[in-house]
Amino acid sequence: MAKNKKINVQGIDVGVYENNKEDFMSLTDIARQRDSKRSDYILQNWMRNRSTIEFIGLWEKFNNPKFNSIEFDGIKNMAGSNSFSLTPKRWIETTNAIGIVSKTGRYGCSF
Asked: What pTM, to 2 d.p., does this model score?
């Protein structure tokens, strides 16, 4: 069963989502420290960065046998361009990613 808890990182409370003995830190809580009203834009801008895409793609290749490398290559080629935009939900759906979890609803968050 999934549980939510908080950890304190350098004075900032960050949510931790636990599922199947795996911990996921809240990217939304981290982004909220930068701009509390626009954390979704902070996350979206972070995910359009080519270095970010290469890092999370490499992590998926090592840890996810069902990772869609072909879709990843397409995303990686577009990353960094002015017209490129990527959300955690789109990343998960397009590449079958497991390293990022996106929860919707009133208390929705990306981990």
From this structure: 0.79
